[in-house]
């Protein structure tokens, strides 16, 4: 039986880190539970907390918002912003096109090769989305047009209404 042995050890390792409060908010509700007892979103939060206590200069995250609720996604975005403010580099694999420009300031668009890279506002364009997704862009074009027209605020409003 696998047990996440993070509670006390995690608290000790992060005791002197200035983002201690943020880390505790991510992991503390789950500190005394086995990892197998956590939902996918809860596991995602625990894995994020484990990465954060390493105090690395660069973090690689593969879909950190996958399987989490809106409140957890917001908490993760705030943690990523804190890391940036501390001079850390965070590289994130992310496929939710509606939130790219809101969450990230630099984008690398890939499809078997680098399609485009640069500041999100200059790089995340309909033209580059077309290059990345080719003819499969019908729905994505509508999303991109909406994002480009109002910064995605209308899409966020529509999501919030549901």
How many E strands? 4
CATH class of the largest domain: Alpha Beta
**Biggest sheet character:** 2 strands, parallel
Examine the coordinates and then state which fold CATH places here, giving the name of the CATH topology of the largest domain: Rossmann fold
- The helix/strand class is alpha+beta
Strand proportion: 5-15%
Q: What is the straight-line distance between the termini?
A: 39 Å
Which of globular, elongated, flat, extended, rod-shaped describes the shape?
Answer: globular
User: How much is the radius of gyration in Å?
Assistant: 18 Å
Helix content: 40-55%
Order of helices and strands: HHHEHEHEEHHHH
The CATH architecture classification of the largest domain is 3-Layer(aba) Sandwich
CATH superfamily of the largest domain: P-loop containing nucleotide triphosphate hydrolases
What's the pLDDT, averaged over the residues? 74
- Going across the biggest sheet, name each strand in turn: 1-2
Give the domain tally.
2
